[in-house]
Structures are given as structure tokens and as C-alpha cells.
Amino acid sequence: MILAIDCGNTHTVFGTITKEGEIQKIFRMESSRRKTSYEYAADIAQICQLLEIDLQGLEGSILSSVVPELTTSYQKAMELLCKGKCVVVNSSSPMNMSFAMADPSGVAPDLIISAVGAKNNYPLPAIIIDMGTATTITVVNKEGVFMGGVILPGVGISMNALAKETSLLPSIDVAPAKTLISTDTVDAMRAGIIYGTAGSLDGIVEHFQEELQEEGSVIATGGLAHLICPYCKHKMIVDDNLLLKGLWKIWQLEQDSSESK
């Protein structure tokens, strides 16, 4: 069993994965830039004890991070807790993925890992929507080549900006509106964010499909995918564990690469 770790700007997701590729126990922590590797090690150990996860029995761990200042902290924390190595995913990691761009080192690792997860679990071409702090929409074509994509402000960023930059609009949580044509301010804000986000996703997906000249698989992941996707007109597969699936595949390829050396 391994522990797969996805460090995002807001939260970090941990998932145990068996040798058969089954994702079992998942937990989340805040991605705090103020904590040291020892503090992270203590927090992870405490949560794993509660969930009855045997850290010493792990074969190793694999880490994806879009927060450079936390990458080393998590890596050192896992080295303190586990006997096995902590693999940090970067552009040179084995992925069995080709890229349309000459230098893929500028592509965020989470985008590549989600693409690996999509390529190995869904029919191609695949359009991948990741709704995190930012919303990204990327494409893997039918030949399995990572083509690139677009980046949008995330739902939370948009909601916070709306409240911050206006005098009369309040800070609210993201939740479904009672109706699209709303009769009060809070519902009008919720409707605008939810339907506006859904509309932008539908529009970009449609343009991508026109460029690809086929529909392909549309996969959505990230914390708010379950909330937004039901309002989209395109059929979307919501897969909360897409990135963990990608990390598992890369772990397998990493082990194969090490054994062949």
C-alpha cells in the first residue's frame, strides 16, 4: 500500500492505495504555508492513527504539489513517518504521456497527473475539468497527447472578488440558488456564480469539441464539481479521485523504471 498526496493551494488530499490500485481511505488537510515539516508529520501521524493507517507498513508515498514552498515540507514529513521513499512528481517523472508543447516543465504537475488519470481510465479524447482554487480545462487527444488547455478563476476566487470589490454585496457560501431568476441578493449571487460557471464550462467544452472534431469523454474533478456539473448542459463524468488515480499510475511506472535500471 502507498499514500498518494495531492497538495493544492487551499487543501491537500491524502489517499491510501492498495497494490491492486484500490483507493481506500481519503482525508484532507489545509495547505498551510506556516507549518514546518515536523508539524505536518505530527498532524499526518495523528490522522492516520485515527483512521488506522499503518504508516510504517506503507511501501512508500507519492507527492504532487502546486505549492513549491510546501513540497519539501511534505516530502520531509513523509520521510520522517515512513520507511519507503517519497516520490515527488515533476516533468521528468515517467508518465507514458506525450506533450504538444516543446517544454512541458512549465505545465503544473496536477494538470499532467489528472491527464494521466484520464488517459488510463476513460476513452480518448478526454476533456478534463479541475475545479480547485483555479478552474483548469485541459485536453488529451485520441492519440494520448497532452494538448494544453485554459485556466479560469475558480468559483471561490470569483465569489470572494465579487464581495471584496463591491460595497453592498456580502460574503456568502457557495450553495445552490432557489431559482435562476432570483428575488434577493444572496440568491442572485449564488445563481450568477453557479450558472455563470456552468455556462463558461459548457462554452469552452463546446469549442474544444469543435477543435477536436469529436465529443470524447468530459471528466470533472475537484471540490466543487458535484455542485456545478448538474447545471451544465454537456454530459460530464464527476470523478473526485482522478488525480489519485493518476498518481497511482505514475507510481507504478516509477517502480517499473527503477526495476529496469
UniProtKB/TrEMBL annotation:
> What are its GO cellular component terms?
cytoplasm
- Subunit (UniProt): Homodimer.
Provide the cofactor list for this protein. Answer: NH4(+); K(+)
Under catalytic activity, the entry for this protein gives: (R)-pantothenate + ATP = (R)-4'-phosphopantothenate + ADP + H(+)
Active site (UniProt): 110
Q: Which HAMAP family match?
A: Pantothen_kinase_3 (MF_01274)
**Compartments, record wording:** Cytoplasm
Protein known as: Type III pantothenate kinase
Keyword list (alphabetical) reads: ATP-binding, Coenzyme A biosynthesis, Cytoplasm, Kinase, Metal-binding, Nucleotide-binding, Potassium, Transferase
Q: Which gene encodes it?
A: coaX
Q: Which GO MF terms are attached to this record? A: ATP binding; metal ion binding; pantothenate kinase activity
What are its GO biological-process terms?
Answer: coenzyme A biosynthetic process
Q: Which SUPFAM superfamilies match?
A: Actin-like ATPase domain
